[in-house]
What we know:
It contains eight helices and eleven strands. It has helices spanning 10-22, 33-42, 59-68, 84-92, 105-117, 152-163, 171-178, 189-202, and strands spanning 2-6, 26-30, 47-51, 75-79, 97-100, 126-129, 132-135, 141-143, 146-148, 210-213, 217-220.
Amino acid sequence: MRILIxxxxxxxxxxxARGLKEEHYAVDIAYDGEQGLYLxxxxxxxxxxxxxxxxxxxxxxxxxxxRSKKNNTPILMLTARAAVKDKVTGLNAGADDYLTxxxxxxxxxxxxxxxxxxxxANKTSVLKVADLELNQLNHEVKRIGKKMILTAKEFALLEYxxxxxxxxxxxSMISEHIWNExxxxxxNVIDVHIRNLRNKIDGASSKxxxxxxxxxxxxxxxAA
Length: 224
């Protein structure tokens, strides 16, 4: 999953990004509201984290702007302001949650996981396709009941394919969701990860789940 952090204090932004990357998330960072709003409007994110006090464009204004354009991506607001009225302002602007500085990374991560689990109504923490299961909470992957050991990128890639099972997923869609703004989509990195993932998921089974559609991309489906 891909997360946008908009925070003008570089130390805090880098601290959050480092922790989230260790938890297998792809992360983009903007250090002012103008750049943050630009990234939020051109990229598909699963979650956005905004500081409320930002140069050029404040977090509350970013939130209002995105909601006015029907962008429903979950937003977590960060602020040094603890007053109830400031929290109410952020929530009324469309934020989904509010975290006051200073905070522990453990608390932020808990909030992130709650927001990412939030519906759509049919969303579940365990994804299933045929005999393949992926637990989004503990990162456990099983096929025919047998546990699979995946790297962080392999897990994120499989999760994205399973969330979109039966749909064609292009290389550009994968690069946007699994990697970050600096990823070079012209490399063969995606092909390498797909090949490694296929070897682990399909290698011991006669029923292939990961399919390559030449010229279009990839699809995860249970072939009849």
